[in-house]
Amino acid sequence: MQVIGSETKYLVQAGWDDAPHLDPDTKKNLLAATPEHLKEARSLGNPALGSGRIFTTDESMVKIPAFDLPKHWPRLVGMDFGWDHPAAFVWIAWDRDTDTIYIYDTVRVSETLIPVQSMAVMNKGKWIPVSWPHDGYQVRDAMHGEQLAMQYRSQGVNMRPEHAMFESSQMVGERKESRISTEAGIQEMATRLAGGKMKVFSHLSDWFEEYRMYHREKGLIVKLRDDLMSATRIAIMDLRFAITEPKTQQGPYDANDKPDWF
């Protein structure tokens, strides 16, 4: 509610299900006549971003109820660095038999110290490797003089040895820069979403909030409230490094128990 002068204004989000005069057949016919990129805006009352919206797969095709994940499914965390622009973490499990990714947890925090972020990550599975973007090599804190990724590693976070990259170039040529292409990552996400190869637990409202709002203006990605989208993209780029939980050591060290990327 926003009060301006003597007037009181209310912002209400409502969809067709909130209109009792619309019967199921009417809603079905209306939906069929609505352009794909406007379906959620008109039927659910979500903000309309027009044809600039990046992901257009209907949420109903992506959302699934939470369930107990099989232990043999490898896990990985994708992260996006941030301070006032939030830091974000996305936990994924990978069903290798069907090549389907399941996003089962997220964290998005602003102005939160790295030790606090690190504790939140490790509490959800210290063994799970964390994939990070190439700006992790930057030194943002002159007082510490450590690269960002190293600051998390120093706190005990299982950071991958190098920044996230596709295994091979997703573009013409073999330039290393093309292996970290944002557009290639977005295309991989869009392909998985459309093909039913990426599912998200339905209670992760912060992820779906960004999913709805992720869009372009004049062809450029709007870098606002895109933190979990970026973390998801980073995880997908490094999917091959997802691992299952190592066995508890019961004696001499066994090299076979090392994570796949060692």
**Based on helices, strands and strand pairing, what is the structural class?**
alpha/beta
- What is the approximate shape? globular
Name the CATH architecture of the largest domain. 2-Layer Sandwich
What is the quaternary state of this protein? single chain
The figure for the number of domains is: 2
Please tell me about this protein's structure.
24% of the residues lie in helices and 16% in strands. It is α/β, with parallel strands linked by helices. It folds into 2 domains: 2-54, no CATH class; 63-241, 2-Layer Sandwich (Nucleotidyltransferase, domain 5), CATH 3.30.420.280. The strands form 3 sheets. Strands 3-8-6-5-4-7 form a 6-stranded mixed β-sheet. Helix 5 packs across helix 7. The longest helix has 13 residues, at 182-194. The radius of gyration is 21 Å and the shape is globular. Residues 1-7 and 249-262 have low confidence and may be disordered.
What's the structural blueprint in terms of helices and strands?
Layout: E1 2-4, E2 7-9, H1 24-32, H2 39-44, E3 63-64, E4 75-80, E5 87-95, E6 100-109, H3 114-122, E7 130-131, H4 148-154, H5 182-194, E8 198-201, H6 205-213, E9 216-217, E10 220-221, H7 227-237
Parallel strand pairs: 3-8, 4-7, 6-8
Antiparallel strand pairs: 1-2, 4-5, 5-6, 9-10
Question: Brief overview, please?
Answer:
This protein is an alpha/beta fold and 262 residues long. Helices cover 24% and strands 16% of the residues. The strands form three sheets. Strands 3-8-6-5-4-7 form a six-stranded mixed beta sheet. The chain has a two-stranded antiparallel ribbon with strand order 1-2.
